User: Fold this.
Amino acid sequence: MTGVPPPRWKVVERGRRLEVIDTRAGPERPAARAAGGRPGLPRKLRFDGTLGWTTHPFYDDRGPRAVVLDGGPARWIGGVTAGIGVALIAVAVLFGLPAIVVIAAILGSSAKQIRGWITRRLDSLAT
Assistant:
């Protein structure tokens, strides 16, 4: 008869925070469920506006990682997201869909610099 297998999830404390580690995902890689669930969808953690967010490697050089944002940065991220959405709709209405394709091509050529800027900004905003 064999013993009980080791558990998949391990909870450790780092800097007064609890982190959930998936032992089958590799060494010291926080689980996606620790902060925001699926990558890209922030989840409210407290009533003061604190958000837990799991980033994605598409826009974060250090992703996927669990980021906790207090109320101010969370509102800033929400405002930036809304502003990008409004800008895309305005460009589509004013200039048509081909303009969005041209803008995407321009942004795609400088994706590495943009991803680096987003990573630095998330590092400065994370609590």
Q: What stands out?
A: The beta strands are 9-14, 17-22, 43-44, 51-54, 66-69. The chain has a mean pLDDT of 77.
